[in-house]
Amino acid sequence: MNHDRTFLDPAVLSRLLALPLHARQAMIGSVSGKHRSPVRGSSLEFAQYRKYVPGDDTRRLDWRTWGRTDRFYIKEFEADTNLRLCLIVDASGSMNFGKEGETRMDYARRIAGTLAYLAAQEGDAVGLWSMNAAQQKEIPSKRGASHLGLVLDALSDLQPGGQTRIVESLHEAAERIPSRALVMIISDLFVMPADLKPAVQHLRFRKHDVSVFHLLDQQEIDFDFDRPARFLDLEGGEAVLADPSDIAPQYRDAVRQYLTDMDDLVRTTGIDYHRVKMHEPYADVLAKFLLSRTPKKGGR
């Protein structure tokens, strides 16, 4: 089967390769890497002193401290590790919103595929979850070029359809992702924030670093239709014929409340949230995201 990988733009990849993908918290990986680990090791980043106990490696004794205190202390360092990137891509029917070639799913593929490629280039592990009411795909996070190809091919094959299962899928991912990971959710979040919040909290409880790209079309927010129209439910509900002038005030109030509730969810869960308008160039969105995660000078 031939897989279309046109969602990977070489010019965008070249531009973004200079911006490494950083975790916001300690990671646990299987190989040495550049991400901070909660496990003490012997990298160059000093962590703390502790008292020497028999069996410790005497090469890590701090002789200056012994000279000052006449006691033996071990210097501990923070081990660096590789990152596990777990991409969770919504494949419900509403992800098919937009013009051909410019749908929400097309945008999601560009975001997910680019991040997968960047992470793999840094030696990090990449995995993919995708879900809707009819099917769910799970590719565990692994390293290597062949595994990256598997993830990219799966992204290419995604076909939006049916109702959203994002809440159930996030709970399942929280239980099944085996260790700390950067969990990247790419979705229109077509669900009430009150229902979404427990699923996000479940991921955070499992010590995952959770980021969200919330994909919205400006038309969904403005609702600036000027004539009667037939509105389709892309997740399987009935079509509605309505005069926008009759429903626009209530619709805009509902959207404002939804976005306010989403802001409250972000504030109370501590997730790394990015509200993305689909007219924004995805390369700019990703550059801003990567820069926001770059450790400050003198910090980790």
Describe it:
With 300 residues, the protein is an alpha/beta fold. It contains nine helices and ten strands. The strands form three sheets. Strands 5-4-3-6-7-10 form a six-stranded mixed sheet, with helices on both faces. Helix 6 (193-205) links the parallel strand 6 (182-187) and strand 7 (209-216). Helix 3 (104-121) runs antiparallel to helix 4 (145-157). It is elongated and about 85 Å long. The protein starts with 9 loop residues before the first helix and ends in an 8-residue tail after the last helix.
Chain-wise SSE layout:
Blueprint: H1 10-16, E1 35-51, H2 63-69, E2 73-81, E3 84-90, H3 104-121, E4 125-131, E5 136-142, H4 145-157, H5 166-176, E6 182-187, H6 193-205, E7 209-216, H7 218-222, E8 229-231, E9 240-242, H8 244-269, E10 272-277, H9 282-292
Parallel strand pairs: 3-4, 3-6, 6-7, 7-10
Antiparallel strand pairs: 1-2, 4-5, 8-9
Helix pairs in contact: 3-4, 5-6, 6-8
